[in-house]
Amino acid sequence: MKEKPKVLIVDDKIENLVTLERIFSDMDVEFVRALSGNEALMHTLEHDFAIALLDVQMPEMDGFETVELMRQDKLTKHLPVIFVSAIYTEDYHKIRGIASGAVDFITKPIIPDILRGKVRVFLELYEYRLSLEEEIVRRAEAEEKIQEQYDEIQIHAHELEASNEELRNTQEKLIGLNREIQESEERYSDLFDNANDLIQSVDAEGKFVYVNTAWLNALGYDKGDLEHLKFADIMVQEELAPCLDLFERTMRGEQFNNVQITFVTKHGAEMCVEGNVGARIKNGEYVAARGIFRDITERIIAEEKQRELDAMKSEFISNVSHELRPPLHSLKGFTKLLVSGKVDDPKTQNEFLAIVDKESDRLGDLIDDLLDMSRLESGRFKINKEVISLKNIIHDAVERVGSLASEKGITITEEMNSELPEMEVDGKRMGQVITNLLSNAIKYNQENGSITVKSEVSNSDLLVQVSDRGIGISEDDIPQLFERFYRVEASDRIEGTGLGLHITRQIIEAHSGRIWIESKLGEGSTFSFTLPLRQN
Questions:
Q1: In Å, what is the CA distance from 28 to each residue of 2, 115, 337?
Q2: What is the pTM of this model?
Q3: Which residues contact 532 (CB under 8 A, 6 or more apart)?
Q4: Which pLDDT tens digit goes with each residue over 354-404?
Q5: Domains and CATH numbers, the chain
Q6: Cβ(436)–Cβ(508) under 8 Å?
C-alpha cells in the first residue's frame, strides 16, 4: 500500500493541533504532532515530511528559531514551512517568518479553504518529487535488464564463432559439423529475425548482408530493396560524416556501446535509435559490422517534453522567488523606518505608507495568481455570474492601472460603443482579465506610449481589444503565450510569474469565449477576446 504523505504540525497546545487536523480531515495525509520546537526537530530525523505547519509562540524555542535550525540541516533544508499564529500578526513578524525560511505566514482566525489550498500545492509538489524518483529507479532497472539481454546475445554470438573455428580445424568431422552449424544458424536466425530490436549486418562496402524482420518493418523496406541499399542511404545527412568515421573504426575491430544515431525510413521519416555496434572478424580480416538497435524516438520526445516542463517550472519558481523579494524588502525597509520613529514628517510618512500599500497589493496579486493556479489544477476554479455592464468593468480596470501607466507616461484611450448590452458574467473575474491585459500592455510598452481599449458588438459576440505600440512578440512565442509558466524571451527584464495570461484564457473560456493575439516585433500587440451574446 502506498504510504500517505506526512504533515508535521507543531503547537504547544493540543487543542490547536486537533483544530489543524480537522481542517485537513478531507485530505489523505498522515499527521505527526509535536508540542515543542525540539520535538519537531526530533521528528524530522525519523520521517520525510511533505510540509510543516508551525506555531510561532512556544516555550523553550519559538517557531522562528525552530525553522532556522531546520534550514541548517540538509535533511530539512528544503522542507516547506507555513507559520500559523494568533498572536504574532504584525507585518514585521511575517517578514521575520519569511526571512527565517518559511514559505508563508498565516494569522488566525484561519480561513480553512485558503490554508488547504496552500498546503495542497506543496503536497502535489511532494507527490511529483516521489513519482520522479520512482521513475528514475524504474528506468535504471529497465536499462540494466536490456543490457543483460544484450550480453546474453553476445555470449551466444561468441559461442557460434567458436563453433565455426572448430569446423575449420577438424576436416574429418566436416559433414557432421556442417549439419550442426546449419541447425545452430537456423536457431539463431529465428532468434534474431523475431527479436523486437533492429538487427543489421553490413559488409566492407557498406551493403546490407542481413537485417531482421523488425528492421524491415520499422524502416518500411522489403527484402528486395536490400540489393541496392547501403547503410549510408538510411542515414540523415548531418550524421553521415561521423557515422562513416564510426564505420571505419569498426572495420579496425573497435566496438561501441550505447550509440545514438538517426535512421531515415523509406518514406523519409526520421527515427532515433540507440544500440551497440561491433565487428565480425574472420582469420584476421574484417567480414561485417553488426549492429543491434532499439527505437527510442518516443523516449526522446517524452524526455524532451519533461525537460521543457522541468525548465518551465524551475523558471516559474525562480520568477516567483524573484518577484517576492523586492516587495518584501520594501515592506521591511519602510516599515522599519516608520516603526523606529525616525521619520516624523507627515508628508514623508504618507509617501512611505503609500509605498507599503502598493507593495502589499503587489504581493497580494502574486498570491492571487498562485491561488488561482492551484484552483485550476484542483478543479475548484469557479465562475459566479451576474448581469453587469462590461463597459463599467473596463472603465474600472482603466482607473485601477492609471497610476502604473502614469509612471511611464502612457496614455490609455477608451473607444467603447455607447450601446453595449449588459452581460451575464463574473464581474470580478472579467475585471481581472481586463486589468491583466492592460498591465501587460503597460509593462511591454515604450516610455510615453499609448494603449487603446476597444469594445463593440461583432456579429453574435461582444468583442474587446487591448492594443499597444510596445515591443511586440515574436511569431515563435505566440503559440505558447497562454501556456502556464511560459514567459517570452524579453520577460527576464520585466516582473511577472508567467501565470497571468494562462489564467486569463481559463476565465475567458469558462465564459464560452475565445482569446487570441496579433503582434509584430517592434510594432506592438493587440489582445482580443470575444464573449457570446446568445447566452445573454
A1: 11, 16, 46
A2: 0.41
A3: 460, 461, 462, 512, 513
A4: 777 666 766 666 666 666 665 665 666 678 889 988 889 999 999 988 888
A5: 1-110 (3.40.50.2300), 138-296 (3.30.450.20), 297-363 (1.10.287.130), 386-532 (3.30.565.10)
A6: no
